[in-house]
Every structure is written in C-alpha cells, then in structure tokens.
Amino acid sequence: MADVSEGEGSDSRARRLRLAATLRRLRDLSGLSGRELAHRVQISQSKVSRIESGVTMPSLPEVQRWAEAVDAPLDTRERLADLTQAAVYETHAWRTALQGKAHLQDDFQERESAVRLVRNFQSAVIPGLLQTAAYARAVFALSVLPYEKEDLAAATASRLFRQEALYEGDRRFDFLITEAALRWRPGSPAQLLAQWDRLASVSTLDNISIGLIPHDRRPTVLPLHGFVIYGPVYGGNDDTAETFVEVETNHAKLTIPDFDITLYEKQWSLLTEMAIFDDAAREFLTELATEVRHEMS
Fold first, then answer.
1. DSSP SS3 for 135
2. In angstroms, rounded to a whole number, what is the distance separating the alpha carbons of residues 67 and 84?
3. Same structural domain for residues 32 and 53?
4. Are residues 196 and 277 in the same domain?
5. H/E element holding 18?
6. Last residue of a domain, one of 88, 115, 134
C-alpha cells in the first residue's frame, strides 16, 4: 500500500518549501552565486537549484554546510536543523491514498521502475513481488482497509503484473525473509506450499537473491519492522543519485530520505549475515513443506 494523505502530504510539502525558501534567502543575503555555493557545499549547481525550488530534499550535513557557507548565525543554524528534521520524514496515509483508486499497485510499480536495485526485508509477510495469486488475494482480503470484490481482483492482477520486473536481467532484486513470515498462513496449507514453490523457483534467477532467516539463527540485530530500500535513483547524472527507504505501518507508509539510509544499510548487512541462500535456502523450504504435508496427511 501507499501514498499521500491530503493533510499529511500538504504539511510535508509545506515544510519542505519553507526550508527551500529559507536556504534560498540565506544564499541571496550572502551574495554567493549558485555555482559558488555548490562548490562550498560539495554538491552540483543543479542540485542547488533543485533544493531551492523544493524539488530535492537536502541532507542534514548538506544543510549544515550550506549554513556554514553563508556564515549563518548560530540561532539560524539551529532553526535550519529543526526545519530539516521536520521536513524529512514523510507520512502517507493509506485511507486517503485509496480514495478514487481501486488499489495502489501502480504506485509501487512506478517506484520500482525508477531504480535498478530493490532490497526488501520482511518479517511478517512474503514480499508482494514474490507472492502467488492465491497468496496475494488472501493478503489483500486481510487488509485493514478491506477491498470490494472487484477491487480485490484488480489489486491481485496488478500485483502479479508488477512481477514482470523480476525477469528483466538488468534489474536487481534482493529479498530477506524471516521464518515467521514464511510460516504465516493467510490462506490454506496448499496455498502456502504453492507459495514456497514459487520462492524456490524465483531464487534460481541470476538477478534475484532470496535470503531466508531461520528461527534458530543467532541474531546479530533486532529487526523491529520490515523495510524496502530503493535505489539509487538517478535523475540523469550520477551526482543526482538518491536512495530512500519505505516502511509500512497499519495506517500509513513512511518515507525515509537518503541521509538516514545508513541505519537501514547497516541493518540490511547484519540481517544478511543471519540468512541462508541458494541451495541451503531451497533445502530449508523443502523441510518446511515436508512439515506441512505431514500435517495435511
């Protein structure tokens, strides 16, 4: 799910524009050109323009270097830090996002199509890009915002359409999935067996990595929730590359910008250390399937 609540989205946009206007005013008062400021802040001149127009959100270190470059007083620097923190974390409510839409799968596809690398960690459910039709339909049916019958069918079909990206060899998709997510049963045992078969099949693709984290692995990190790392996203030149993270909650999606990515990159690395891959992962799925088949017999 995804996207913007009118109130929340407009507030976030207003905070970003307020920060952009403040940075532009400070540069004007300093007498620095965009080129001169870009050199001092260690970014491109085009990024200075995007920041001042509110298109691109600067990182906190960039804002701090900006303030230093224009010789801003201490109280102004503190206010800039506050403005940056307030503008950075965007909250997009599901309920408003779904108004006028049958589903939000097209929004997800748009984000995925903009990047060449998607890293997806899930601790409660198998990622949508890997779901079978039956599993996806069961997940949508259990949503906190229930779908009408026709919308449920459309959402399921669109989720499956998104999966075509997995077969584009120049794209990279990495998944980490906990045993708890594997064992969760939104549908019947037979549907879960088919879902595990799907995981095993997709894991053989060269551009796909599926890591499974069994319960008995020694923990190296405490994952409080799932997350997806998108990026980098390129705007035409490498110096415009940006990475962002999305976290889904019951009521909304949170978008975390590039300068807080380090925390998630580190957690991804630690979770990877706990995971099993390739033949070991497929063997683990076989063991789970044997257990379920024994229950069914």
1. helix
2. 12
3. yes
4. yes
5. helix 6-30
6. 88
Predicted local confidence at residue 11, as pLDDT: 61
Calpha distance 9→15 (Å, rounded): 10
Question: How many CB atoms lie under 10 A from the CB of residue 249?
Answer: 12
Position 93 in a domain: no
Please spell the DSSP secondary structure of 89-101, one letter per residue. -EEEEHHHHTTT-
Which of 150-185 are b and which e, b meaning 16 or more Cβ less than 10 Å from the residue's Cβ? Answer: eebebbbebbbebbeebeeeebebbbbbbbebbebe
Q: Which two tokens stand for residue 180?
A: 């708890």
3-class DSSP string for 157-221: HHHHHHHHHHHCCCCEEEEEEEHHHHHCCCCCHHHHHHHHHHHHHHCCCCCEEEEEECCCCCCCC
Q: Which of 38-52, 87-101, 121-135, 196-210 has the lowest mean pLDDT?
A: 87-101
Higher pLDDT, 165 or 253: 165
- The bridge status of strand 252-256 relative to strand 227-233 is unpaired
Q: Of 63, 88, 113, which residue is a domain's last?
A: 88
pLDDT confidence of residue 20 = 93
21 burial via Cβ count (<10 Å: 0-12, 13-18, 19+): middle
Q: Which of 1-10, 47-56, 74-83, 88-97 has the lowest mean pLDDT?
A: 1-10
The one-character DSSP state at 146 is: P
Residues 160, 155: Cα–Cα separation, whole Å: 9
**The pLDDT of residue 145 is above 80:** no
Q: Give the global pTM.
A: 0.74
